[in-house]
């Protein structure tokens, strides 16, 4: 059995069946049992072990306009591939648009045909076609300044366009670069080095029945003002007959004593005493195994290296060992 588990993993359970018929039957002498791999029924979680919430919003009405009204936060929350795509697309469209404006000015003034005339002063020197207009825009926007193409004082519309280009370029740079900087500085990946125990256990500690799990920090950099909270997600029905599918109850992990404020240098054991105030007080071992509930552990604090306070981990514990 151990060899089968090493081969197929823990997502399968081994059952013994007979070669004829269905169900479990006794084996005769010399007849070895046949082992069959049956996939385990995976429990659907509200919060995955990696902290991702399995929530999809629907029937909200004007959902797109709500996201566009807060465009900056929407861009920050997008995945990296979409951020890079929008970043490249925005700059490409802006550059092509502004280069087209310079080409239109040169075309309407007749600079494209008179550029090689000796005594003629164009709007932008040495702009003969669209590629040269595009290069002039890039040199101006990126402050490269090769000195071969330059704007002259005989073109008031070019001066106005130059001012508009400077303002628009500053706005685009501030918006997109600020978005990318905030996305890179988010401490979401800091949670990859925070380890939670795979299972929670219920046993006696200090003469009290206690729910316990462990949390540890792999990095040498500390988390300042680390605080831990636990939420019990369970459906219930109120005395008025209202059904609450995802009712959230707070599990006391030391709020009254200050034990929820962690000094997370070494791995710590988080305890919830099952007393008369605990949601687990009226549950037996058998009923706890059959009940549908989920415990979400939230750890938040200040990242020492960046000084940012953020939600670092949301881990779901749905498996209890007694």
Summarize the biggest pleated sheet.
Answer: 5 strands, mixed
Give the CATH level 1 class of the largest domain.
Mainly Beta
What's the pLDDT, averaged over the residues? 77
- Poorly predicted regions are 12-33
CATH architecture tag of the largest domain: Sandwich
What helical percentage do the residues reach? Answer: 25-40%
Question: Termini separation (Å)?
Answer: 24 Å
Query: Which of globular, elongated, flat, extended, rod-shaped describes the shape?
Result: elongated
The helix/strand order is HEEHHHHHHEEEEEEEHEEE
Helix-strand category = alpha+beta
The CATH topology of the largest domain comes to Immunoglobulin-like
Number of domains: 2
- Radius of gyration, in angstroms, nearest whole number: 33 Å
Strand content: 25-35%
């Amino acid at each position: 059995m151990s060899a089968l588990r090493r081969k197929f993993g823990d997502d399968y359970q081994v059952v013994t069946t007979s070669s004829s018929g269905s169900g479990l039957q006794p084996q005769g002498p010399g007849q070895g049992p046949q082992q069959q791999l049956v996939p385990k029924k995976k429990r659907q979680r509200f919060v995955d072990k990696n902290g991702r919430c399995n929530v999809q919003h629907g029937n909200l009405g004007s959902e797109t306009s709500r996201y566009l009204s807060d465009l900056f936060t929407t861009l920050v929350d997008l995945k990296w591939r979409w951020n890079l795509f929008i970043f490249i697309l925005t700059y490409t469209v802006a550059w092509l648009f502004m280069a087209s404006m310079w080409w239109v000015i040169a075309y309407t003034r007749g600079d494209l045909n008179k550029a090689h005339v000796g005594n003629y002063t164009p709007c932008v020197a040495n702009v003969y076609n669209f590629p040269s207009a595009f290069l002039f825009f890039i040199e101006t926007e990126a402050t490269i300044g090769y000195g071969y193409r330059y704007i002259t004082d005989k073109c008031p519309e070019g001066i106005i366009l130059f001012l508009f280009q400077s303002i628009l370029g500053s706005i685009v740079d501030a918006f997109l670069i600020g978005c990318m900087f905030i996305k890179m500085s988010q401490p979401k990946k800091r949670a990859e080095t925070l380890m939670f125990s795979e299972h929670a256990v219920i046993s006696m500690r200090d003469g009290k029945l206690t729910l316990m799990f462990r949390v540890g920090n792999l990095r040498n950099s500390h988390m300042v003002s680390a605080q831990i909270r636990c939420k019990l997600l369970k459906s219930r029905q109120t005395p008025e007959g209202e059904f609450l599918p995802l009712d959230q109850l707070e599990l006391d992990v030391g709020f009254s004593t200050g034990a929820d404020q962690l000094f997370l240098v070494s791995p710590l054991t988080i305890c919830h005493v099952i007393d008369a105030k605990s949601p687990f007080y009226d549950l037996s071992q058998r009923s706890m195994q059959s009940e549908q509930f989920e415990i979400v552990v939230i750890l938040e604090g200040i990242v020492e290296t960046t000084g940012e306070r953020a939600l670092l981990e949301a881990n779901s514990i749905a498996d209890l060992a007694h």
